[in-house]
Amino acid sequence: MKTIIRIKHSILLFLLISIVGLLAFSLESSDLNSINKLEIEGANYLTINQYLEIANLTNFKKDPNINITVIQDRLEKHPYINNADVWQAERGVIKIILYEKKLEALLLTNTKQFLITNKAEIIPFFASTKNIDLPVIVNLKNANNILAFRNAGKFENLIKALNIISASEIYDEELNNRISEINFNEGNGITLTISDLEFPIYLGDDSEIEKTIYLSKIIKHIRRNRLFEYMDYLDLRFTDLVYLGFDNKIVATEETI
């Protein structure tokens, strides 16, 4: 009798183990643990689909190796992305928040285009990039030596451009928003273009921070007195002097504006 009971217990135990094993296999092979949907926020410079394509996530449902870690790693390797928060919001749904890098300028060379971040990182520019309104840096001397993923601090002229941008950002946000071009003229001094002024501004090749602060004061004076209607250029290349060009005439004023 005891032998029969033991046999019954063994059979029941075997059945129980088999059922648990089948359930575990069923859950593992079912869609319960699969990723069916990616919900993404924070895509401003590129569309969500463009980020997914570059990160090789367009066909994530067919990727047997896909998981949260893989998704985060691929997205954070994109040069526009600073970091990404990735988590499972509900069964089969992955929530993603992208934190894009802050961009300071667009750099154009004869053959390439780059972006410069607020951490002075040079990164590639994608032609489909949108929602950027940045100063454009052009005509750098030896521009062909510039490479992506280098620090702008290794290039003297780029540091000067970033100094102008940073000084205007700190001292005069309106001026910062209206700087449209920083032209280095192949090493022959800096020329600034302000979006709402039709004349060039010559800064020379030194003391760019101080001159940017002077420029802020001068432009306010010019606007207040509507001098921009008559001006041909503004010249800050000379120490302690600001030259205002009026219809081919030069007016010099001491640096007391």
What does this structure look like?
The chain is of the alpha/beta class and 257 residues long. 32% of the residues lie in helices and 28% in strands. The strands form 2 sheets. The protein has a 10-stranded mixed sheet. α4 (156-171) packs across α6 (208-224). Mean pLDDT is 84; it is low at 22-30.
Task: Note the main attributes of this structure.
alpha/beta; 3-stranded mixed sheet
Quick take:
By secondary structure, the chain is of the alpha/beta class.
Summarize the helices and strands and which ones pair or pack.
Layout: H1 2-29, E1 37-41, H2 48-54, H3 68-76, E2 81-90, E3 93-100, E4 103-108, E5 113-117, E6 122-124, E7 136-138, H4 156-171, H5 173-178, E8 179-183, E9 190-194, E10 201-204, H6 208-224, E11 231-235, E12 241-246, E13 249-254
Parallel strand pairs: 1-3, 4-7, 7-8, 10-11
Antiparallel strand pairs: 2-3, 4-5, 5-6, 8-9, 9-10, 11-12, 12-13
Helix content: 25-40%
Alpha-carbon distance between the two ends: 111 Å
Count the strands?
Answer: 13
Mean pLDDT metric:
84
Side-by-side strand order of the widest sheet? 6-5-4-7-8-9-10-11-12-13
List the secondary-structure elements in sequence, H or E: HEHHEEEEEEHHEEEHEEE
